[in-house]
Specification:
239 residues, alpha/beta, DNA polymerase, domain 1, globular
């Protein structure tokens, strides 16, 4: 595995714990215990997925509409301020515990990019929760389209130098990220925190269970000169 020059990341679900953030936001308006009866995150994420495949509209609108439709699907209606509260909640979604330490370590050896299905204004609130400065930010707003449309990856590739072999994209989602990224030649690493089956629909260079394992993929072993090898990390590594 040749070490890349660039590491790009999906943001929500890979660096930011969107499931916890979304569920907490819905919990404010669902009757107590209802979120345990209805997997509201799964309902919301399915609605959002369909909306992302429609003609482009700003992500803020998708957040608001998907919230309203998910609440209706669960049998509830909410006042306008609830929809606005859901939009505002994104700024409070926390990073995964492994994200910050891994990004700091990686920033010393690689250029870092972020490729996200979001508006730039909304992304800014999440960037304040991450401890590094990214060299390239690419949003759906820039591409005027959402993943899984590979257009956003093509634009990111141009900004990062246009050589796919120099770039590794790290993400948790096969449909959102791994498939479209690999379709244009980017190398990919599957972040599989939940131990799910490895997706067969994307060309994956490596699978990790934590971002803490990512630096070890290209670390050098003593006595091997300049050859880079994959080193197993905590939780095991499958190539």
């Amino acid at each position: 595995m040749n070490p890349p020059r660039w590491l790009s990341f999906d943001c929500y679900g890979t660096l930011i714990d969107w499931r916890r953030g979304v569920t907490a936001a819905f919990r404010e308006f669902l009757p107590r215990g209802e979120e345990e009866v209805v997997d509201i995150f799964k309902v919301w994420e399915g609605i959002q997925w369909e909306m992302l495949r429609q003609p482009y509209v700003p992500y803020a609108e998708i957040l608001e509409r998907s919230f309203e439709r998910a609440m209706e699907a669960a049998g509830f209606r909410c006042p306008r301020y609830a929809t606005e509260s859901f939009l505002d909640s994104l700024a409070r979604w926390e990073p995964f515990p492994d994200a910050g330490p891994a990004l700091i370590r990686l920033s010393h050896g690689y250029r870092l990019g972020l490729i996200s299905n979001i508006d730039r204004a909304l992304l800014g609130s999440s960037l304040r929760r991450l401890p590094v400065r990214f060299d390239v930010l690419m949003t759906a707003e820039d591409a005027r389209s959402y993943k899984p449309d590979p257009a956003i990856f093509r634009l990111a590739l141009q900004k990062m130098g246009g050589v796919p072999d120099d770039i590794v994209h790290v993400a948790f989602g096969a449909e959102y990220d791994l498939e479209p990224a690999s379709s244009i030649g980017l190398r990919t690493v599957y972040l599989n925190r939940d131990g799910l089956p490895r997706p067969a629909s994307a060309s994956i260079e490596a699978e990790i269970r934590s971002l803490e394992q990512l630096p070890g993929l290209w670390e050098k072993r003593p006595g091997r000169g300049s050859s880079a090898v994959a080193a197993p990390g905590p939780g095991g590594l499958r190539l």
